[in-house]
Sequence to fold (329 residues):
Amino acid sequence: ETGQVTASPEQNDSEYLSPVTIGGQPLTLDFDTGSADLWVFSNSLPSSDSAGHVTFDPSKSSTFTPYSGATWQIAYGDGSSATGSVGFDSVTIGGVTVAHQAVELADNLSGAFVQDTQNDGLLGLGFSTINTIQTQRQKTFFENIMPSLALPVFTANLQADASGTYTFGAIDAAQYSGPIHYTAIDSSAGFWQFPSPSYTIGSNGASVPCTTCSPAIADTGTSLVLLDDDVVAAYYAQVSGASQDQSQGGYVFPCSASLPDFGVAIGSGYTAVLAGKEILYEDLGGGVCYGGLQSNAGQGVQIFGDVLLRHFFAVFDGGAKRFGLAKKA
Ligand SMILES: C[C@H]1CC[C@H](NC(=O)Cn2ccnc2)CC1
Fold:
């Protein structure tokens, strides 16, 4: 079987939200390849937290079964967090159903989630080695559905300021053109992780090999591209007027600045290039703009988020354990 759903951007394309049905109840979730928990706003949240959100009410689902005693707690790279209880229910995405999916019910969450009222929770598409359910971690939707899919894959075709697509079980030829450039992934840390041994700056920028470059992860749940400090410093050294602004939390530059192209190696065979204008992430006002490339704060992994992914067709191959990028159709 195969399934397909829309991926609708929030402001600044900061995240993408997709429709999911849980126990017959429709919710809108952020599909996140950088984590492995499926959690939802639930009716056990105080109304001050759930106001404006759609909440899942297990008592209204005829197929929900509690996982008594199980708990979960997650913290994300942006400092947001959530905790709660667990049950199992039927989860359907684009017509594809997992009958007994672990569904994590939030009964406490951080302010960032409360304020983001279009988001009713997250659906992790990473590997279940990093699922946070205790005392027995549970599989992701993709791991559960994989054996039933025509192909053991899902693809992400995110768009800039427009609705895109997640597809499960097929690599839709209508969504890309030319070759898919694959790299093997190492899932041992729970991520779609691969080496990124070089980068390029400028339109005919020579490839700069970096033996010390941290491995990269493909992370649909992160808005920006978060790079090793020396790489991001090398980029903004080429942007006149750029500076690190602690109050804005990263590199800013005059909105009128000329931005060089930037390319990152996807494994050792392919460099994914972003046009300079795609590095302008947000206009902060007063002629100051915030960059889409920022530091990973020495996390030892480079995080290739939506600023990169939305310019390509991305293939997450769970069967062959590989990740690929292609030009969009
Ligand atoms: C080391 C990496 C750090 C960044 C992590 N990504 C996220 O936290 C994405 N996310 C989801 C909700 N809010 C943010 C992935 C691991």
